[in-house]
UniProtKB/TrEMBL annotation:
GO biological process assignments: axon guidance; neural crest cell migration; positive regulation of cell migration; semaphorin-plexin signaling pathway
Membrane-traversing stretches: 605-627
Record's keyword annotation contains Secreted: no
Gene Ontology MF annotations: chemorepellent activity; semaphorin receptor binding
Name of this chain's protein: Semaphorin-4B
Length: 671
């Protein structure tokens, strides 16, 4: 049975008492009004044109003062884009885009935002840039602007937007190809009491030229977008379908209140809607670039550190449903942690950040999950807490734990801009805990060690470095226990010049009772195979320390904070064959399961001698039998002469090139 594609595209507060929702409803869009008190549907009607027909098509919606502003595809095939206003108040008509000229070229809407100060709405999308004369369609990231109270023209552009303009969003490094496909935009309002012009837009971009996952994050300021819309525009020439740059600047383009303008003014508005200059990012380039991840969603918040300094946190969602938490520091972006949101990879449909609750809500087609913005308890030591560089987490000297920073705590220790962990964690390091591992002689043991961070390098300190050891990719160490290899083993992690002991083991050799030997002392060439244990069938069990770990992995700039158990397979048998690999620091080991048996060299020698004598006797008897048989056959055959019989006994090599006639003996009839 196929799943019915019923997806919710819009769910927003319409007013103080009702929610507005719109869904695909199996390619027949429906909208509904939900009472917030009873959470019941009050009214449900057709919503064609207000949200997409397809459940996989994206749209952008803003509800302001009970009016609905939507950017979507209005037809079943998804080829007719529109930006519309519905539920218009004060008796003014609903408005939409002029259709006599293509104002949008195959757009994909991703986000929208409202500027309440100037009553303007901004829609972010990607489309085909028709102003470029290339063989291949060039995707371009755009931002479009309309005025909230636009009512259209009197004769020209009736019930159409007179304030529609669009500009290019440029996200690129100098002298490099741009990241030209916009995936998502998050609007970060200014700090409390700040200027609305300082509103920031964080956009996630990808590129159409990349063969692998690649993405970037660029930041745009509202003031910069306004300046571009106040500048010069390009004019679309209907006859040639080409763009030309205006020779003079028209101050009325991109402004509100053009409803009563002349037909000449509205005619210019109709064909001059693309700005000449692009909107450039705040830092003249991306603030985050990844050549290994393709991000699809973003959410941003400001975080106040223990010293009252504000930092920006980015929550980036990958296409497979992983969450990367990134902090923007002076020396560059720092990935704090990576979180796997779902057991199986899923495409994230929506992200909602609640700073008041400290929760990030992530929605897919199968459900919604809530992720706390801070996971301080995952860092179990002072060094782990500080090396994570999370502005929301700090090490409390009083409680000796990593906790959430709420500001004004003098006992909170953080380390965001430098790596001076030794001084800040002085006196906060716990005493070393050594785990005792007991093993029999020549038993293989495996000592587990999980790295606290993927940026850390694991090294083992052990008694005899010249012996054969195996250090696996997961950090564990395996070796054969002997008198020389027993002792204390320490697993150390080094990150940013700071070293810490992650695990400590004391490997102790368990003595076994040996059977009496024939000779009192062993010869110089005696091997372990000549030693007989009390129980030859015993299969020793490997003693491995298994514990709960909390890790903070930041490999390649990515961080994980899962909690898992370390498990490994048992190796049975006491005899092992060791082979050293070509690596200078690690060795390969091959384990053969061999059950130890009591051996006698004298018994083996007698058995081999008897078998050799028996083989010789069989060979002699076989040779006599063949000679006797051939002699009898030559003496009794009347059809073959002695000379011909001798020719039969010629070697095979002498006739290997002869014909068949030469090989067959001549037959003679004897009368």
């Amino acid at each position: 049975m196929n799943e019915c594609p019923n997806f919710i595209h819009v769910l927003q507060p319409l007013n103080s008492t009702h929610l507005y929702t719109c869904g695909s409803y199996a390619y027949s869009p429906q909208e509904a009004y939900i009472d917030t008190q009873s959470f019941s549907i009050v009214k449900k009607v057709s919503a064609k044109g207000r949200c997409p027909f397809s459940p996989f098509e994206r749209s952008a919606v803003v509800i302001a003062d009970g009016e609905l502003f939507t950017a979507t595809k209005t037809d079943f095939r998804g080829i007719k884009p529109q930006i519309l206003r519905y539920f218009s108040k004060d008796g003014r008509p609903d408005v939409s885009l002029e259709t006599s000229i293509r104002l949008l070229e195959e757009p994909t809407f991703v986000s929208s935002s409202l500027d309440p100060a100037e009553g303007k709405l901004y829609f972010f999308f990607s489309e085909v840039g028709k102003e470029f004369s290339y063989v291949e369609d060039l995707k371009t990231a755009r931002v479009a602007q309309v005025c909230k109270d636009d009512v259209g023209g009197v004769r020209t552009l009736q019930k159409k937007w007179t304030s529609f303009t669009k500009a290019t969003l440029l996200c690129q490094f100098e002298k490099q190809l741009p990241f030209n496909i916009l995936q998502d935009v998050f609007t970060l309002p200014p700090p409390e009491g700040g200027d609305i012009a300082d509103t920031l837009f964080y956009g996630v971009f990808t590129t159409q030229w990349s063969r692998g996952p690649e993405s970037a994050v660029c930041v745009f300021r509202l003031e910069g977008i306004k300046d571009v819309f106040k500048g010069s525009y390009r004019t679309f020439v209907t006859g040639t379908h080409q763009w030309s740059t205006q020779q003079e600047t028209h101050s009325y383009l991109g402004t509100c209140g053009l409803g009563n303008s002349t037909d000449a003014v509205l005619g210019e508005v109709k064909k001059s809607f693309l700005t000449t200059n692009p909107v450039t990012p705040v830092d003249k380039g991306p603030v985050v670039v990844s050549s290994e991840q393709q991000y699809s969603r973003v959410a941003v918040m400001r975080a106040r550190a223990a010293n009252d300094e504000q930092h920006t946190l980015l929550f980036l969602i990958t296409e497979s449903g992983f969450l990367h938490k990134v902090v923007l520091l002076d020396q560059g972006p720092w990935v704090i942690e990576e979180i796997q949101l779902f057991a199986q990879p899923q495409t994230v449909q929506s992200v909602v950040l609640s700073t008041s609750k400290g929760v990030l809500y992530v929605g897919t087609s199968e459900g919604v999950t809530a992720v706390p913005v801070a996971n301080c308890s995952t860092y179990t030591t002072c060094s782990q807490c500080l090396l994570a560089r999370d502005p929301l987490c700090g090490w409390s000297r009083a409680s000796r734990a990593c906790a959430r920073v709420h500001g004004g705590h003098e006992d909170m220790v953080q380390n965001l801009e430098d790596s001076n962990v030794d001084d800040k964690c002085q006196g906060q390091t716990e005493a070393e805990k050594i785990t005792v591992v007991r093993a029999h002689m020549n038993e293989v043991v495996r000592l587990s060690c999980l790295t606290p961070s993927n940026l850390a390098t694991l090294t083992w300190a052990f008694p005899q470095s010249e012996k054969l050891f195996i250090q696996s990719d997961d950090g564990s160490l395996s070796f054969v226990v002997t008198n020389d290899t027993s002792g204390v083993y320490r697993c150390e992690a080094e990150e940013a010049g700071y070293k810490q002991v992650v695990e400590s083991y004391d490997v102790q050799l368990m003595r076994s009772n040996l059977t009496p030997r024939t000779h009192e002392t062993a010869g110089p060439d005696e091997t372990y195979e000549s030693i007989v244990t009390d129980d030859p069938t015993m299969s020793p069990t490997r003693l491995i320390h298994t514990n709960e770990y909390t890790t903070d992995d930041r490999k390649n700039g990515f961080t994980t904070s899962p909690t898992g158990k370390v498990t490994s397979k048992e190796h049975r048998g006491t005899n092992r064959n060791l082979q050293s690999s070509s690596s200078d620091t690690q060795y390969g080991v091959q384990l053969d399961d061999v059950t130890p048996k009591e051996k006698s060299y004298y018994g083996e020698l007698v058995g081999v001698s008897l078998m050799l004598a028996l083989c010789i006797c069989i060979m002699i008897l076989g040779s006599l039998h063949m000679w006797q048989k051939r002699k009898v056959s030559l003496g009794k055959d009347p059809l073959v002469t002695p000379e011909e019989g001798a020719s039969i006994n010629r070697p095979v090599e002498s006739c290997s090139l002869s014909s068949r006639a030469e090989l067959e003996p001549e037959l003679k009839v004897v009368e």
